[in-house]
Amino acid sequence: MVLEYDWENSVGYWICTTSHAIRRALSNRLAQERMTLRQWEVLACLSQRQNSSQAEIAECLGIEPHTLTGIISRMERDGWVRRVASSTDRRRYSILPTERGHAVWTRAVDWCREVRNQALTGFSPEECRLMKQYCERIRRNLGDDSDINMPAANAKAESLSEPTESESSILELAHSAG
């Protein structure tokens, strides 16, 4: 018995397979520099939400906090982040990027731009703007108005052909596959 579905009309399928292709391309590029996609996602989250706890980062990434523990530990071992105890809550630790983490992030932003440029080859700035609007509308239609992937600094209208520090366009697509 064959399981049938109208894949050619599935918006979720289009978005998921596109996101998977972008994530795979970015992951391959990051691997050349000995960085995992999850490590990049942690730094991306920290670029948008300074002073985040492990639980907040896990929520941002859509994973369980205990899943993030090993990733944070490796990043701390490699000198990319450090844990800082909260002065008001003994159970809370903020995850902060170190100078080395900032340097790695700066290089990673360049790698993201390479992947974004490859993904958007042949698209006009208007097509990119429309794609962004369509994705935003889908999220609103589904009741997701949190804009968790759009930091306030990038909320103003801007062209995808002009890169931003947080690479929010790639992050939006990367998180849609979760």
From TrEMBL:
Keywords: DNA-binding, Transcription, Transcription regulation
Region (Disordered): 146-178
Domain of life: Bacteria
One Pfam match: MarR
Gene Ontology biological process: response to stress
Residue ranges, compositional bias (Low complexity): 158-178
One MF term in the entry's GO annotations: DNA-binding transcription factor activity
UniProt-listed SUPFAM superfamilies: Winged helix' DNA-binding domain
Annotated HTH marR-type domain residues: 8-140
PANTHER family: TRANSCRIPTIONAL REGULATOR SLYA, TRANSCRIPTIONAL REGULATOR, MARR FAMILY
Protein name, UniProt field: Transcriptional activatory protein BadR
Record lineage: Bacteria, Pseudomonadati, Planctomycetota, Planctomycetia, Planctomycetales
